[in-house]
Design goal:
197 residues; three-stranded antiparallel beta sheet; four-stranded antiparallel beta sheet; alpha+beta; single chain; Herpes Virus-1; 29% helix
């Protein structure tokens, strides 16, 4: 079992898009999204304004910058401090390009500073290994089990058919539950969560 992470970022000038909250956790396992939005003033007349902006955003996004986090903030920040360097560099390039485009925009010199936002999202998925699925208990459908149907495909179990039993004791066709566990790590009947290492 492992984690697959995808990273998304968006930079914009305040007023151009609807702003979002500073911290958010969206969804439940096996799919979670952690979102963090930062706001900074971009001084258009400072000589090293782009470098200063990049440094400030990087600190706010990827490093601990306050003493007392709420439980939600701590959970989100834990994900952000673990973002790989290559992904951080991609965001830094995006911030630099956006800041330089603002400096070159002829409409901006009349402004002393512009407020900029960056929204960074970490999408995390759990992938259940093939060996975990293959290691699930199997039983033969006999007697009263023949009258039960698989709740995934709604077909009854055949007499003597090998079926898969989850730790919560619910029964499914092997192929049905194998496909189900590619997109969820919980039992489709009772939401029992398979053990996550």
């Amino acid at each position: 079992m492992g984690f697959e992470c995808n990273y998304y970022s968006r930079v914009w000038r305040v007023g151009d898009h609807k702003e979002r909250g500073d911290y958010a956790v969206i969804g439940l396992l096996p799919h979670e999204m952690f979102q963090k939005t930062c706001h900074l003033m971009f001084d258009l007349h400072q000589s090293n304004s782009v470098d200063h902006l990049v440094s400030s955003f990087t600190r706010k996004l990827f490093h601990h910058h306050q003493q007392n986090y709420s439980p939600l903030q701590a959970r989100v920040q834990e994900q952000f401090t673990a973002v790989p360097l290559q992904q951080q560099l991609t965001v830094i390039d995006k911030i630099k390009d956006f800041a330089n485009s603002l400096l070159q925009d002829s409409a901006n010199p009349r402004h002393r500073a512009i407020q900029i936002c960056i929204c960074f999202v970490i999408e995390r998925r759990i992938n259940i290994s093939k060996s975990t699925v293959e290691g699930l208990e199997t039983v033969r459908s006999e007697g009263c089990l023949v009258e039960i149907e698989c709740v995934i495909c709604f077909e009854k179990f055949e007499n003597g058919e090998e079926i898969t039993r989850l730790p919560c004791y619910h029964l499914f066709h092997g192929d049905c539950i194998s496909k189900w566990l590619q997109r969820s790590i919980t039992c489709p009947l009772c939401r029992y969560g398979l053990p996550v290492n």
